[in-house]
Amino acid sequence: MASELFVDTSGFFALLAPRDNKHDLASQTMRQAEKEKRRLITTDHVLDETTTLLKARGEGHLAESLFDRVFGYTAWRIEWTDEKRFAIARAFFIKHLDQAWSFTDCLSFCVMKQLSLREALTADHHFHQAGFVALLK
Fold it and tell me: How many structural domains is the chain composed of?
């Protein structure tokens, strides 16, 4: 069975925005993941954060492509935040108030731990700080 790969906000942005300095690396990484038939995992909070970032950076027109990609291919799985998952992320966030991690980061870390994921398509150094492999360093 192929391993799973978590995709974070900066990974999505790099994939979608050709002007991003990590675009080529993100595209190459995704082509390799597709070749290896890796399952791609994200969360509803990452999708929220990504669409907000796209709009804030003047790239709101790319949101449709994001949704088409994630909801249009069976390789993608969205991990939805229910009350239990939110409570776990909330406790993790409170426990790590000494870190500069966002709530979405903490939720992502909790999901990655729950699913035993090690790698994330992200340029966010917070993933490395939390013990994960950030593929877009």
Answer: 1
Here the CATH number for the domain that contains residue 27 is 3.40.50.1010
- The verdict on residue 100 lying in a domain is no
Cβ distance 129 to 116 under 8 Å? no
Is residue 109 one of the residues assigned to a domain?
no
Give the DSSP H or E segment for 79: strand 76-79
d(CA 128, CA 122): 10
Say which residues have a Cβ less than 8 Å from residue 62's Cβ, sequence separation at least 6: 16, 17, 54
pLDDT per residue rounded down to tens, the chain (137 residues): 469 999 999 999 999 999 999 999 999 999 999 999 999 999 999 999 999 999 999 999 999 999 999 999 999 999 999 999 999 999 999 999 999 999 999 999 999 999 999 999 999 999 999 999 999 98
Q: How far apart are alpha carbons 7 and 58 in whole angstroms?
A: 21
Q: Which range of residues forms the domain containing residue 44?
A: 4-80+118-134
- CA dist., res. 137 & res. 134, Å (int): 6
